[in-house]
Write a structure and sequence with these properties.
Layout lengths: L2 H5 L6 H27 L4 H11 L5 H18 L6 H8 L15 H13 L3 H4 L2 H4 L1 H14 L3 E4 L2 E4 L6 E4 L5 H14 L4 E4 L6 H12 L7 E3 L4 H10 L5 E5 L2 H12 L4 E5 L5 E3 L6 H13 L11 E5 L3 H14 L18 H16 L3 E4 L17 E4 L6 H4 L6 E7 L2 H4 L1
Parallel strand pairs: 3-4, 3-6, 4-5, 6-7, 8-9, 9-12, 11-12
Antiparallel strand pairs: 1-2, 10-11
């Protein structure tokens, strides 16, 4: 059976989704043998398909596709109604570590985790945890939408048909590589679009592994395309190219402006996410201590290099000193260092340019008279090289300060006092 045939068959039934969820849980808790047991205890051709795949953990994609043809073609023919989420699952899941055994690529999970650790310095626990597996959440969302989506809808006497937009240009950032790749690629492929992916030049390794996985899975030539290079060169060429119908960009505001301008002449659709300066309002209740603790950890996660990091913490004036002390204690317990070590919680920032930017903004906080609660400029005392930043907490921050307004993208938290909830909002 060809990948094209699989893509255009829909097995998105409620029972199938339930089985997939059960296999997912079994793989996580009991490994391959537990997943096989689930398949053995579940009647029907779909369970047989998955069991065949699990039995052939070293087999090729073609072998699994043959199993689908042998055991599932009759049932699949009854369910044809557009795109198949199960085919998308089989094609993309190996890079996420889920169902990788179906096509003999479970090792891709560790390969991707190691690539992310190498390319951006993610600590071991994060590289092998959220950084690699988070894409599965996006894939499950694509599955859930496809399960219920109607490609043709009648409304007020008109027929509305949803069709693929065409070639999609995808530009992804370095801070959550696999998350961003799958968040863009899965829905694009699910919609029937072909894609050109340009990963960040700072984090190209995981994208290459994904390209290898899709190639080995038998995805037809031209459906997925990978091109490396700098944003001002390759990104600009993609934005201006007349054969690309849509650009999806995640990154800096400067980069987003360039993509929008480059896309204007060909009137492309453009979708962008350009970072942020997220606020975290802590209320005056009996959970304040826990809220502050969680807020600090959320800010410092991924070395502060997340667009949704809650880098501004607003706390009630009456408990301001209490909040500062809790934040200081939490920050000073965090272990910064070699991302290869199991106990490391904060690794280096991604590059010299990022290190210099974070140091500049920490210096500006001190110069603008914010209160340095802990941390500060320079590396942690036990580290004499590398792009390591001290986990830093500022108090006495006002809206006029640079650290209040600018996205720092490092392990730096600003704490601001408020008199009432209306003022905080």
């Amino acid at each position: 059976m060809s990948i094209e045939r699989i893509i255009y068959l829909n097995m998105a039934t409620t029972n199938t989704k339930k089985l997939v969820d059960e296999i997912d849980e079994s793989l996580q808790k009991g490994g391959v043998d537990a997943a096989k047991e689930v398949c053995r205890n579940t009647p029907g051709p779909v369970a047989t398909i998955f069991r065949q795949g699990l039995d052939r953990s070293s087999g090729s994609y073609e072998e699994v596709a043959k199993a689908i043809e042998d055991y599932g073609s009759v049932e699949m023919s009854k369910l044809e109604r557009g795109l198949s989420w199960i085919s998308l699952f089989i094609a993309l899941a190996p890079m996420l570590g889920f169902m990788g055994t179906v096509i003999g690529m479970i090792s891709a999970f560790d390969d991707i985790a190691e690539a992310i650790r190498l390319e951006m310095g993610a600590p071991l626990h994060l590289a092998h945890g959220g950084q690699t597996s988070v894409g599965l959440g996006h894939l499950k969302t694509a599955i859930r939408v496809l399960e219920e989506f109607e490609y043709e809808q009648e409304k007020d006497g008109f027929l509305i048909r949803y069709e693929p937009i065409g070639v999609c240009g995808l530009i992804t950032p370095w801070n959550w590589p696999m998350n961003q790749i799958v968040a863009k690629l899965a829905p694009a492929l699910a919609a029937g679009c072909t894609c050109v992916l340009k990963p960040s030049e700072l984090a190209p390794l995981s994208a290459h592994i994904m390209a290898e996985i899709l190639h080995e899975a038998g995805v037809p030539a031209g459906v997925f395309n990978l091109v490396n290079g700098y944003g001002p060169v390759v990104g600009e060429a993609m934005s201006a190219h007349e054969d690309i119908e849509m650009m999806s960009f995640t990154g800096s505001t400067r980069g987003g402006v360039a993509v929008a301008k480059g896309s204007a002449d060909t009137v492309k659709r453009v979708s962008q996410e350009l970072g942020g300066k997220s606020a975290n309002i802590v209320l005056d209740d009996d959970q304040l201590g826990e809220s502050v603790r969680r807020g600090v950890l959320a800010c410092m996660d991924n070395t502060g290099q997340s667009c949704n990091a809650p880098t501004r913490m607003l706390v009630p004036t009456a408990r301001y000193d209490e909040a500062l002390e809790i934040a200081r204690e939490v920050a000073e317990t965090l272990v910064t260092g070699n991302p290869e070590l199991e106990n490391t919680q904060i690794g280096p920032v991604v590059s010299a340019a990022q290190f210099d930017k974070v140091q500049r903004l920490i210096s500006s906080g001190i110069e603008e008279k914010a209160t340095l609660v802990t941390g500060g400029v320079g590396r942690p005392e036990h580290l004499d090289r590398g792009y390591f930043v001290k986990p830093t907490i500022f108090g006495g921050v006002t809206p006029q300060m640079s650290i209040f307004r600018e996205e720092i993208f490092g392990p730096v938290l600003s704490i601001i006092a408020y008199e009432n909830q209306a003022e905080a909002v």
